[in-house]
Amino acid sequence: MAMITDRKGRADISFAVIDTSLESVYNVLDSIKDNFQTQEIIVDRNCALIVIYNTSRQATSGLAGKIFARLAERKINIEMISSSLTSLNIMVKRDKAMESVAAIRAEFGI
């Protein structure tokens, strides 16, 4: 999962890294940060990535809206979202991961 936002001349780059790779990824970013005028590198270990994979997603109208509504009902904040033709990627706080998955499963009867 990756996201780039740009506002008022500032670009923020966010992406998910598996725990076992975090240290090496951080070291690489730290070694090149001066090349990009990086102000800071922030690591948030309290995140969980949920990937909803659906090969027929194009035909599934309202999938994201249904998921977002279920999470909102449970007051689960979505930290980051990205999507492709076959997947919807949602980042939530780690302590809300299992509740989020349960809500999504309940919505779709799986």
Automatic annotation (TrEMBL):
SUPFAM superfamilies: ACT-like. It catalyses: L-aspartate + ATP = 4-phospho-L-aspartate + ADP. The keyword Protein biosynthesis does not apply. Keywords: ATP-binding, Kinase, Nucleotide-binding, Transferase. It is an enzyme of class 2 (transferase). GO terms for molecular function: aspartate kinase activity; ATP binding. One of its GO terms (biological process) is homoserine biosynthetic process. Belongs to the aspartokinase family. One of its GO terms (cellular component) is cytosol. InterPro entries: ACT-like_dom_sf (IPR045865), ACT_Aspartokinase (IPR054352). It comes from the Bacteria. This is aspartate kinase. Residues 59-108 form the Aspartokinase ACT domain. Its EC number is 2.7.2.4.
